[in-house]
């Protein structure tokens, strides 16, 4: 076949749909599964990002208000009564847990308070660990998508290119009009993988940093509150 015949054949062939939807519909079944999975992962990633952004922002404001109230001189008993039924953030949960143990020991008529300080520290440590674990919930999803997303997309690309080469071998036509659609479909899988992985990686690092800062702030409050309670134990002892 001479070049003129090849050009005429290419012109006669129907043009491929290179839109995003067209690339998906024309892709191989395996590549479609990869694309659909990565799109769902991207939606899940953004749902987690929005949820965590709102959660951390709200928690920071609640902790600011709580610390302002705590250090304003208000009675610890009054603050405990207002929060005991439903502590709505991590710092309040630590405060309520410690005050509950404190009141249980004093109102229960304990004969010795020698181990009360250790019990209070353990109660606050357990509550702090539980709250930090809640803050870290679903961050593993971001880490997984961020690390595995590009490789999953690359798998779809490799499979798509392999299928394209098989089609080229079967048709014995190497014109760009025949090769381009298959290559575009394959590369589209990698693009979706990167679209899912890039924000997942960025926000995972951002949220881990925020969790660490909040954890340090909670540990500082726990230590300060433990010192206050320890001082009161010494005064009553």
UniProtKB/TrEMBL annotation:
The keyword S-adenosyl-L-methionine does not apply. Signal peptide: none annotated. Residues 116-219 form the MotA/TolQ/ExbB proton channel domain. The chain crosses the membrane at residues 29-50, 139-162, 182-204. It is found in: Cell inner membrane; Cell membrane. Its main location: membrane. The keyword RNA-binding does not apply. It is a multi-pass membrane protein. Keywords: Cell cycle, Cell division, Cell inner membrane, Cell membrane, Membrane, Transmembrane, Transmembrane helix. HAMAP family: TolQ. The Tol-Pal system is composed of five core proteins: the inner membrane proteins TolA, TolQ and TolR, the periplasmic protein TolB and the outer membrane protein Pal. They form a network linking the inner and outer membranes and the peptidoglycan layer. Belongs to the ExbB/TolQ family. Part of the Tol-Pal system, which plays a role in outer membrane invagination during cell division and is important for maintaining outer membrane integrity. This is Tol-Pal system protein TolQ. It comes from Ancylobacter oerskovii.
